[in-house]
Write a structure and sequence with these properties.
The chain is α/β, with parallel strands linked by helices. The strands form 6 sheets. It has an 8-stranded parallel barrel with strand order 3-9-14-17-18-19-20-21, surrounded by 5 helices. Strands 4-8-7-6-5 form a 5-stranded antiparallel sheet. A 4-stranded antiparallel sheet has the order 1-2-15-16. The chain starts with a strand and ends with a helix. The radius of gyration is 25 Å and the shape is globular. Helix 10 packs parallel to helix 11 and helix 23 crosses helix 25. The protein folds into 3 domains: 390 residues, Malate synthase, domain 3 (TIM Barrel), CATH 3.20.20; 108 residues, Beta Complex (Malate synthase G - maily-beta sub-domain), CATH 2.170.170.11; 138 residues, Up-down Bundle (Malate Synthase G, Chain: A, Domain 4). Helix content is 45%, strand content 16%. The chain binds acetyl coenzyme *A, ligand LL5AMS7Z and magnesium ion. The site of acetyl coenzyme *A has 25 residues, from strand 3, helix 5 and strand 22. It catalyses: glyoxylate + acetyl-CoA + H2O = (S)-malate + CoA + H(+).
Length: 701
């Protein structure tokens, strides 16, 4: 470790910061380290105290339930007020985050999330501002079940074109129908809303509807355009307006090496230099960031549109510490504080390096802060960001915050949490996956939970989703900040997504999470079909759903599950858990498409793991299942997961002697120690087992 102002810093991190992130940033190296040491000195102890407060509150709640305390919402409200879990509501107020890019404040459209440790995916995500509607419809099950990928399937192609023409009829109505158009220019002249036509590019004609752009690509020499009577080769949709580059639940970052890899990718995105070369279909491809797009308006004026999604960076929460930096007393530095400093340092370079590649147009820095518990933790983040602004010489509130509404104490005190960051908040978002894990953990001792699949139908979750929108609107989010909804966690189920995810804009959410660029393009169609601004106006006068409903835990009304039902529940949880953990521990993959028990690939990350682990821990605690039954399920499912990963050369089996391996042991620990993990989080155990494996491998080498 290298000494910097009393801090012991991993040499590779010193090199990264002093040779790459700081030069050209406008921040002096010496001043940076002095600032880092000062911020850590001022905030680390308070950070630890906030975590201790979480534990103290949880202990009171555990005691209440163990003593048979009432579970109904009214009793919960009284008890939680008494222990200080519920805080007084602020007087009505309106957020004032200052200068915020339109993509966040005023437009409604998809939000993509992408793991920061994967450069190839990151580039794809940044470039997912625009996506091919034809490709998204043709290449997925959106209209027809997945087909043969070799060659062009005429029937499938025609179905795509029909769907897309219907879409144009709905979004850009003309005299007659787009189905009958033979000359796109002539059709444009008959647009019902002539202002929808904005101009031309070299490739097509540009339109805008509900604030989102649509480019009809006309090319009679293109294989598709050649066979189309209007010469339409594709429809390009503005898709991921914003993207969250994730340093949290979708990455496995346990040491300095991993953290630097994430920070370096963030730097490459901000300075415009990130590139990735990879083999695809037997050919080497190099991917770089897309340029902005150039158009000419009907009056001859030239203009450009962003070619890339507006990027947020998700920092880690307040829980973990990092071995990359030790404080003068030898303790590891809180990772969230280090993330805030380093990601802001990098983000404030925006526009200094390659102006045409800049991220935002307002200079704002967009940080997503996950897993905060209640207003005091939001206030802590606010003051931390103040301190980071001061140390980097940034104007006050240039660092914006997106608050994940994904812990119960935050949902229950949402207005007060927003108030604590009211001058920098740019989103609230229902992270229902973490929120479900926290629901189970908070009420761990209240009784056995309903089955995992029934959780979505619980009263608390409906109240949570409603209150998030209602409170956001009451705090003035419309036109100022995003109200967001959660992840579509089935990346291959695009027909289902098209059928169901329209509910998010319908609920008045101005954005919702998608797992891939393709999903972004398909989800964008929902924002054309639904006018979010109108939905927000309609919901603005609703009464906020009662807190009592939010506070009613999803404890099963009875335990009359059959043995078969219990076994299915166990197997399902054990399978997803093992399938995710084995890649995390052995290969450092923080987010993957894990085939479920029926071989349907589901997006699993740390939040979905938290749910499975907590659910199993809860059923174990209440005797719905025995330890032996859990072990038997893990053994059965280890064999299944091994078979599902049979063609991965890096995979290490977990069945047989694989039970002694770190991955299997980590999976067991997540369940058997689940009830006592802080708030049910999985990162302490995941980090411990992964670090142990990395150390063993280093020693062996
Ligand atoms: C609760 C929460 O916190 S949710 C937030 C955390 N979750 C996430 O960030 C999920 C992000 N999504 C992903 O990481 C991926 O989609 C996964 C892991 C779920 C699936 O990955 P894969 O199985 O490799 O996807 P699949 O084979 O279907 O598609 C791969 C292609 O799609 C692209 N792709 C898939 N997901 C993404 C993404 N999120 N961003 C950018 N590109 C993506 C890849 O770049 C690749 O294209 P390429 O070959 O041209 O590079
Ligand atoms: O971060 C998102 C969630 O659902 O958790
Ligand atoms: Mg989450």
């Amino acid at each position: 470790m290298i000494d910097r102002h009393g801090l012991s810093v991993a040499p590779a991190l010193v090199r990264f910061l002093e040779e790459r992130a700081l030069p050209g940033s406008g921040v002096d190296i010496n001043r940076f380290w002095a600032g880092m040491a000062d911020v850590l000195a001022r905030f680390a102890a308070e950070n630890a105290a906030l975590l201790a407060r979480r534990d103290a509150l949880q202990a009171r709640i555990d005691d209440w339930y163990r003593a048979g305390g009432a579970q109904d919402g009214a009793a919960q409200r009284a008890f939680l007020t008494e222990i200080g879990y519920l805080t007084p509501e602020p007087e009505p107020f309106t957020i004032a985050p200052g200068s915020v890019d339109d993509e966040v404040a005023r437009l409604a459209g998809p939000q993509l999330v992408v793991p920061m440790l994967n450069a190839r995916f990151l580039l794809n995500a940044a470039n997912a501002r625009w996506g091919s509607l034809y490709d998204a419809l043709y290449g997925t099950d959106a209209i027809l079940p997945p087909g043969d990928t070799r060659g062009y399937d005429m029937e499938r192609g025609e179905a795509v074109i029909r769907w897309a023409r219907d879409f144009l009829d709905d979004t850009l109505p003309i005299a007659g129908s787009w189905h009958d158009v033979t000359d796109v220019e002539a059709a444009v002249a008959t647009l019902r809303d002539p202002d929808a036509f904005l101009g031309r590019s070299e490739t097509g004609l540009l339109f805008r509807h509900h604030g989102l752009h649509i480019e009809i690509v006309v090319d009679r020499s293109h294989p598709i355009g050649r066979t189309d009577r209007a010469g339409i080769a594709d429809i390009s949709l503005e898709s991921a307006l914003t993207t969250i580059c994730d340093l949290e639940d979708s990455v496995a970052a346990v040491d300095a090496e991993d953290k630097i890899a994430g920070y370096a990718n963030w730097l490459g995105l901000i300075d415009g230099t990130l590139s990735a070369s990879f083999d695809k279909g037997g050919r080497t491809q190099t991917r770089t960031l897309a340029e902005d797009r150039h158009y000419t308006a009907p009056d001859g004026t030239a203009f450009t549109l962003p070619g890339r999604s507006l990027l947020f960076v998700r920092n880690v929460g307040h829980l973990m510490t990092t071995p990359a930096i030790r404080m003068p007393d030898g303790r590891e530095a809180p990772e969230g504080i280090v993330d805030a400093i380093v990601t802001s340092l990098i983000a404030q370079r925006d526009g200094r390096d390659r102006e045409p590649m800049r991220n935002g147009r307002t200079g704002s820095i967009y940080i997503v802060k996950p897993k905060m518990h209640g207003p005091e933790e939001a206030d802590f983040a606010n003051r931390l960001f103040d301190a980071v602004e001061d140390m980097l010489g940034l104007t006050r509130h240039r660092i914006k915050i997106g608050v994940m509404d994904e812990e119960r104490r935050t949902s229950a005190n949402l207005a007060a949490c927003i108030h604590a960051v009211k001058d920098r908040i740019v989103f609230i978002n229902t992270g229902f996956l973490d929120r479900t894990g926290d629901e189970i953990h908070t009420a761990m001792h209240a009784g056995p939970m309903v089955r995992k699949a029934d959780m979505k139908a619980s009263d608390w979750i409906a109240a949570y989703e409603d209150r998030n929108v209602q409170i956001g609107l009451a705090c003035g989010f419309a036109g100022r900040a995003q109200i967001g909804k959660g992840m579509w966690a089935a990346p291959d189920r695009m027909a289902d997504m098209l059928a169901q995810k329209g509910a998010h804009p319908m609920a008045g959410a101005s954005t919702a999470w998608v797992p891939s660029p393709t999903a972004a393009t398909l989800h964008a169609t929902h924002y054309h079909r639904i006018d979010v601004a109108a939905r927000q106006r309609a919901r603005a006068s609703e009464a906020v759903a009662p807190l009592e409903r939010l506070l009613t835990p999803p404890v099963a009304a009875s335990r009359d599950w059959s043995e078969a039902e219990i076994r299915v529940e166990l197997d399902n949880n054990a399978q997803g858990l093992l399938g995710y953990v084995v890649r995390w521990i052995d290969q450092g993959i923080g987010c993957s498409k894990v085939p479920d028990i029926h071989d349907v690939g589901l997006m699993e990350d740390r939040a979905t793991l938290r749910i499975s682990a907590q659910h199993m821990a809860n059923w174990l605690l209440h005797g719905v299942v025995t330890a032996e039954e859990i072990d038997a399920a893990l053994t059965r499912m280890a064999a299944k997961v091994d078979a599902q990963n049979g063609d991965d050369p890096l995979y290490r089996p977990m069945s047989g002697s694989g039970r002694d391996g770190l991955a299997f042991q980590a999976a067991r620990a997540l369940i058997f120690e689940g009830a006592v993990q802080p708030n049910g989080y999985t990162e302490p155990l995941l980090h411990r087992y992964r670090l142990s494996g990395k150390t063993d491998r280093r020693d062996a080498a």
